[in-house]
Amino acid sequence: MKIREAGLIIGIVLIFLSFLFFARAPFTYTGILVGGLLVSGIFYLSILFGKRTVVNKSAWTLICIGAYLILTFVEPLIIKSSYLIYLHSNQTDLEEINSLVSRDSAEVWIGREEIIDKQNKLSSQNQKRLLELRQKVGAYSIVASKEGVYYGLDGFLDVRHGVLYSTINSDNRKGLKPLKDSWYYQ
Asked: The pTM is what?
C-alpha cells in the first residue's frame, strides 16, 4: 500500500472516529469529520486521477462505497455510544443537577450566565452551583420542568442535540431515542 492509499484509509478512519465526539465535543466532532472528509477526498482524487490501473481505481472506489455503506449502518450506534460516554463521564454532576432542580418540580431554565426560576424555589447558593455545574457538563442550556431535565449540548437554528432525564413515565417522547434508564437523546 502506498501513501495515497494509506491517506485514504486514514481519512475514512477519521470520519468514523469523529462520531464518537458527536455528543461530548461538537467542535471536535466537526473538526475531525471535516478533516477526515478532506483527507480522504484529496487522497481518493489523487488515486482516481493518478497513474493507476482501471482495476485499482475501481477497487478503491468500491472500498469508499463500502465504507460509506458501513458508516450509514453504524453511525447511529456510534452516536449513541457518544451520548453514553457523555453520561458516564458526567454522571455525578448530572445527578447533582437533577436533584437540585427536581426537588420541587420547579420550572427552571439555566443559561450561560443566568437562571430563570419561575417559582423562585432555588436559593442563591443553589443557583450559583447550578451555573458551575452547567459549565462543567458542557451544556449550553438546561431546562427543567415537571417532565424532566433537558441538557442542550449543541444546537444551531432549528437543529438541537441533547439528552433528557425523564422524571415521568411516558411513551410519548417525539424525536427522542432511549439511552439507558430514564435517559433519552435527540
From this structure: 0.84
